[in-house]
Specification:
The complex is a heterodimer.
Chain A lengths: L5 H34 L5 H13 L2 H12 L4 H10 L7 H25 L3 H9 L4 H29 L3 H7 L9 H10 L4 H34 L1
Chain B lengths: L1 E9 L2 E9 L3 E5 L6 H9 L6 E6 L2 E5 L4 E2 L8 E3 L11 H9 L11 H8 L14 H14 L5 E4 L7 H18 L3 E5 L2 H7 L2 E6 L2 E7 H5 L5 H4 L5 E12 L4 E6 L2 E6 L8 E7 L3 E4 L10 E14 L2 E8 L2 E8 H7 L6 E6 L9 E3 L4
Helix pairs in contact in B: 2-4, 3-4, 4-5
The chains are: A mainly alpha, B alpha+beta.
């Protein structure tokens, strides 16, 4: 029987917490960005599109460093946050969640945007003629129809967050119980002599979590798809 | 009552339409590209005129001079689209009540059970649109629009996407709507058989403009409108009542204002109101009533107009009691008979040439 050590449990639960918050926090913004990109034309749209996709092609370390410059205690936004609200982001699990969210954001937006583009605008027009305003139309027709895509986006972003390493270690470092997520704990073990066996165990846990997430997403997507078709 | 006067430029195409649609079914008829759908999209608020005014029952929906432009959801119109546009994530029941649920209770004038009964969709309520046939989907779409208690029902070629069997299945439902629910219907179509079956008033659209508007019988009897009413479908439309059936010979007699018509047996009860299409090419003209002739319909008529249709054909407009008929004969025949307006002649129509599809029921009233 595979029982987890306290250290492993700590890393795993921290990973789930960080990824969960990363996805939950970025979902509304992801929906808004996807909607803007799919449905609106505005000057600078290509630029916005590019900025959203940047974390996909940049080395994660660059993103982590940029976050440090922006949100660090002496960063442009971070200093202001600390002075006015006493909020510290860098070197906390919140910072890890933000780093994961930024890295995973393009994946989420892409999936949601694709599903939004596949929604028949004619159905939205029909809803309008039936007395629904634009906001109500979005929530009662558009959102239910794009649900499979939103789910895909959420799962992709969650999986990407679980595996986030570069930006996280640059922005929030390796603090046990605070920012030491699965990948970071794994990295630390591979760097210490005699940590091979423990590293292998973490590897197995990582694979297990990732696989479970994928299976669950597949099951969920099938259910939603079946409900739409039925 | 819909009053509309709009202008809109779409590229090279200029739409400039003035029309009024009262109770009953008003058909917007014209070839594709004539601007029919653009007109009802403007009424629904799905597209915006450059200028003009749209009013329904005295309520202004759009007025460019006072800057009024109500959003579609605030116009309270029903729209039945060419493709059903049912919501795939909702059951039939969910689709039906979609508009109704967004209406204050006091404005829900249309009864759910009545709609379900009239459209025959009672057994479908718990199904999802994906499991319905094309005709069933369109019936649900009609019910959904009706249950929103619209001021006017807009229908954009609701049968165009269906095969002819489904079309025949759906036509009677639409024909009963205007009567059963007392909601005016604006019906866009480019199929003359649908228009003849449904329309009380005909609006002929051509090239972004209204070419003619008025009672259907009147417009169909006007040879000058033939390019718009259809080259092969040309002919007058006569309103009549089924007088009796002769089962032994398989014929029916229809009485109309001007006489009696003998046609192939109609599947309609005695007393039913019908519309009969008499193709212009099926009318022959005789100066004297012919004796011992196989043609059963010999109607005394007066020539009211003779106009050339092309170099070798002439249109002869005939008045028969209160009914206008219209025949097409060769210029040679016209010259040799010396047909001129005012002459009393006889119109000959073979009973056989009036096919079953030319006699359409118009309901008991």
């Amino acid at each position: 029987m595979f029982t987890m050590t306290p250290l492993e449990i700590e890393a795993l639960s921290l990973s789930l917490l960080v990824s969960g918050w990363a996805v939950a926090g970025s979902l509304p913004l992801g929906l808004a960005c996807a909607w803007l990109l799919a449905r609106r034309d505005f000057p600078g749209k290509a630029l916005v599109d590019g900025v959203i996709h940047l974390p996909l092609v940049l080395p994660p370390v660059v993103v982590g460093y940029a976050l440090l410059v922006l949100l660090g205690r002496r960063g442009v936004v971070g200093a202001w946050l600390f002075d006015w609200f006493g909020i510290t982001i860098a070197f906390t699990w919140k910072g890890a969640a933000i780093a994961s969210a930024v890295i995973a954001f393009p994946l989420m937006v892409r999936a949601i945007r694709l599903s939004l583009e596949s929604v028949d605008r004619g159905l939205e027009q029909a809803a309008r003629t039936l007395g629904c305003g634009p906001v109500r139309t979005f929530f009662s027709v558009t959102l239910p129809l794009m649900l499979p895509g939103v789910l895909t986006g959420v799962i992709l972003a969650f999986a990407r967050s679980l595996s986030e390493f570069g930006a996280t270690i640059t922005f929030v470092s390796n603090i046990p119980g605070e920012t030491r997520t699965l990948p970071i704990a794994l990295y630390a073990l591979t760097q210490s002599p005699g940590g091979d066996a423990a590293a292998l165990r973490l590897c197995i846990i990582s694979v297990g979590v990732a696989f479970t997430a994928l299976l669950a997403s597949d099951l969920l997507a099938r259910r939603v798809q079946a409900r739409l078709k039925a | 009552m819909l009053n509309l006067s709009v202008r809109r430029r779409q590229g090279d195409f200029l739409l400039d339409v003035d029309l009024a649609a009262g109770s009953g079914v008003t058909a917007l008829y014209g070839r594709s590209g004539s601007g029919k759908t653009s007109v009802i999209n403007m009424v629904a608020g799905l597209s915006r005129p450059d200028s003009g005014r749209i009013e329904v029952d005295g309520k202004v929906l759009f007025a460019s001079d006072s800057g009024i432009d109500l959003a579609p959801e605030r116009r309270r119109l029903g729209y039945v689209f060419q493709e059903h546009r049912l919501f795939p994530h909702l059951s039939v029941r969910g689709n039906l009540v979609f508009g109704r649920n967004r209406l204050p209770a006091g404005l829900r004038a249309v009864d759910f059970d009545q709609v379900v009964a009239v459209l025959g969709i009672g057994s479908l309520l718990d199904r999802h649109p994906a499991n319905l046939s094309g005709g069933e989907k369109q019936r649900v779409a009609i019910g959904r629009a009706l249950l929103a208690s619209p001021r006017i029902l807009l229908m954009d070629e609701p049968l165009a996407a269906l095969d002819s069997a489904r079309k025949a299945e759906l036509l009677p439902f639409i024909a009963t709507l205007a009567r059963e629910f007392a909601i005016p219907i604006l019906y866009v179509s480019h199929a003359m058989d649908e228009v003849l079956r449904l329309a009380d008033t005909l609006v002929l659209m051509n090239d972004g403009r209204v070419a003619a508007a008025g009672p259907l019988e009147q417009l169909m009897a006007d040879p000058a409108l033939r390019p718009l009413t259809g080259r092969y479908e040309a002919g007058a439309v006569v309103t009549a009542i089924v007088a009796n059936h002769d089962a032994a010979y398989g014929v029916s007699r229809l009485s109309f204002d001007g006489g009696t018509l003998l046609v192939g047996k109609a599947d309609l009860p005695v007393g039913a109101k019908v519309r009969v299409r008499i193709h212009a090419r099926d009318i022959a003209i005789a100066i004297e009533p012919p004796e011992r002739v196989s043609i059963r319909n010999v109607l005394p008529v007066v020539v009211t107009a003779v106009t050339p249709a092309d170099p070798f054909l002439v249109d002869v407009v005939l008045s028969c009691g209160g009914t206008t008929l219209w025949g097409q004969i060769t210029a040679l025949a016209q010259a040799q008979l010396g047909l001129v307006p005012g002459m009393r002649v006889h119109a000959l129509i073979k009973a056989l040439t009036i096919a079953r599809g030319d006699v359409t029921g118009r309901g008991p009233d």
